[in-house]
């Protein structure tokens, strides 16, 4: 593989999703293979102290690399790496090009440019959207009563997580609320992506960055401050993603990304609700209610449905920023 082909593969692979759009994955062409590494400066030490989300995000990038190769008519085989961190980079996996392309990979590769996060709400979704769709790592919830319950749990979990001022400070550092914010069109969560109006964007830093949030929470307004229940209830389904506790989060990320691309192929958009997994009490409540096996861990949730309008285009770093 020459540099031109490598750059073309990475340009497609970097479309993979990541927590808070931190884009921690980095790519390197070494010894005929493509190495995926995690840039540790893009960790979320408060919100993700165990690096679960970092590894899941890089796992999505690993799968995206395999699929990007498939789009170029080349097969790919991924092997996880266990080398120590070096120079702020953590080796994640090596993808070796070669062999025949899996037809399913080629089909999913066609969805990589279509997959988008949509936070503005959902339009009515046809009854066949979720037919014949199941996976060992996913519990698909379509009953409205259960969706309503999950929507409430998302707000409860978010309110609990947001009680931490260090967490709010970290979150704010990845929010791009002004057009002139550094990285507005490159990374993090900008106003359009957050489906946030201009006035709201102006007051969010004053609430999240000060003690005002705690005061309002004491008055019982916590869930409404961070709440998304009204839009969440409009989802046609919620997909609960879980993975064996003793297996790799990188592999969990690969499976998560494939499922999201399968949703795109069905004409659906997704909206993650990671708070359900981040808050221990809510994670247990959800796992118990939906009989997730005890040896598996809930690691993310996707609200799924048909977009109710235009979805903002994704923001991505420059290609030169992600190649090392």
UniProtKB/TrEMBL annotation:
Q: Which domain of life is it from?
A: Bacteria
- List, in alphabetical order, the Gene Ontology terms for molecular function in this entry: oxidoreductase activity
SUPFAM superfamilies under this entry?
Answer: FMN-dependent nitroreductase-like
Q: What is this protein called?
A: Putative NAD(P)H nitroreductase/MT3217
Q: Which organism is it from?
A: Ruegeria meonggei
